[in-house]
Amino acid sequence: MIDDISSARDAALAALSLAATVDALDAVVGEHLGKRGPLSSLKARLGSLPTVDEKKAMGQVLNEAMQSVAAAADERRALLAAVERRARLDGERMDLTEYRRPARRGHAHLVTEAWERLEDVFVGLGFKVAEGPEIETDWYNFEALNMPPSHPARSMWDTLFVDHGPAGSTVLRTHTSPVQARVMTTQEPPIYVVAPGRVFRNETADATHMPVFHQIEGLVVDRGISFADLAGTIEAFTRAFFGPGFTSRLRPSFFPFTEPSAEFDIRRPDGSWLELGGCGMVHPNVLASCGIDPEEWSGFAFGFGIDRMAKEYHGVDDLREMYSNDIRFIEQF
Ligand code: PHE
Prior knowledge:
Elements: H1 2-18, H2 22-33, H3 38-46, H4 52-92, H5 110-124, E1 128-129, E2 135-137, H6 138-141, E3 160-161, E4 170-172, H7 177-186, E5 191-200, E6 212-222, H8 227-242, E7 247-255, E8 258-267, E9 273-282, H9 284-289, E10 298-305, H10 306-314, H11 327-330
Parallel strand pairs: 1-5
Antiparallel strand pairs: 2-4, 3-4, 5-6, 6-10, 7-8, 8-9, 9-10
Helix pairs in contact: 1-2, 1-4, 2-4, 3-4, 5-10
Phenylalanine binds next to β9 and β10.
């Protein structure tokens, strides 16, 4: 009987080693170790052995044979499963090398582009970038800027009010100048900052006005700052931003928060002028409101519209076109 067990075991092992897939292997296992398989039928023959000892001994031999077949089957199953998994993964892998026409890239909004270039130029001139909130208190937007309540100069800005707190106490900022006050009340001089941002006015949109637009504010506070520093900074900015053929000029003007005040214009290479923004020496009352001693420190400030500048820079006729999202317009830039 030992010989029968050995040959049944060897037949099973040989069949296992020939199985090429997990399914084929399972079939072989069923065939050889299953109830009707050769090894099981040998088990039935144990009962016919004459003595208990012989039954025991032969039963053990048979068990060992079956266990070695089962172990060999497990080992081969693991191997075949790994091979099949590898093949499946290879089959599922996508070919990403197929050639495709690259997607056409768009570009940032003209105002965003101008905003970012302005920041770059001013950072290059030694300024830091500051920010302030778009919803502002009356104090920062007007009062700290030398415009007490009901000051007539407030009418220079058509103000949109926010229904929050006491009537008139909260506004959508009408300019970026409140950021000046925010910087001066929180930072010690020397101060060299620019503050780009969105501003709001109660105006009807037309070719040169929008109710929502963008400004950039500049503020310098240091010892011994003079009007010459202001003029020099505007000129340095003009050349850096527009190019070597451009220059600037200042014309007397009025703002409550600067004294003296000026408008500044950019001269194009063809001799035409672009009126860009306002500027001046920071009013001593503004320094004092913000806790800076005007006897010790002086400064200048300037501010201008980013949308206006992008419009002129790209030769756009109508500001509203820049916000129309018309692809025929956008694609020109
Ligand atoms: N805030 C002014 C405006 O919106 C511009 C300005 C800024 C003027 C700084 C002087 C100094 O019109």
